[in-house]
Structure prediction request, 265 residues.
Amino acid sequence: MGGGGTREVRLPRPPGGPAPWLVGAGLAGLALLTVVTASGPVDVLSSTGSATGTASPSRPPSVPPSSPTATTATTGPFGDLSTLPSLPPVVVALIQLVVFGLCLWVLYLILRYAWRNAPRMRSRTVPRRPLRPLPALPDELVETADARLALLASGEPRNAIVACWVDLEDSASAAGLPRHPAETAAEYTIRVLHTWDIAPVALGGLAELYREARYSRHPMTEEHRAQAIARLTTVHEDLQRVADEAAARAAFAEAEVAARQASDT
Prediction:
């Protein structure tokens, strides 16, 4: 897009539509209704003389039954299920048409639910934040590197690590970046150096050593000093890299301006 003040960001639509359990219950009911309407009358079959579940041993049946016969129910609204009235073909067709329509309606609900909950994207215009150029790296951060290493190499390990970090804080404040009200000096220093992406892992490790040296009560050993020297060296190398890149860009820009002036003359 152009350089306007707004840009479009695509955000997912919120979910909506009928609940899945409601659709499933509707399908189960329609399936049951279809089975009932499609089945015919049910006959209850039993053997003659088997109402009690056992045969009398003293009076065996004289004539064995040749085939099961239908028994008459003694309770219920109908005396015999086989006497249920059969529906006319027109009524059966009407029921089937209603069931088919209900199936289409449930299918519509399923498709509607799937469509409304699909991970579609919609457009929304949000204001674009203006891009700010990176500030120039303070020369003090690079020029005081040797003095900072000398502070770290002298004295007790605890005092040396604290003095090194405090010197780094003073040099970082030369960048002129505003400090947040609730920001500590250590947090401000880390944020300033992160502006140029200065060795984030080494810088974070050096900050941890500083907090350990300042607030802990256990002894700080030469091993802690060695770790701090290694991490500070990495930070200094990255600072030098950023300074060299800035100097190269400035030299290229000057050469380009000089070449343009020479071509004009």
The chain has a mean pLDDT of 76. Residues 161 and 254 are 41 Å apart (CA to CA).
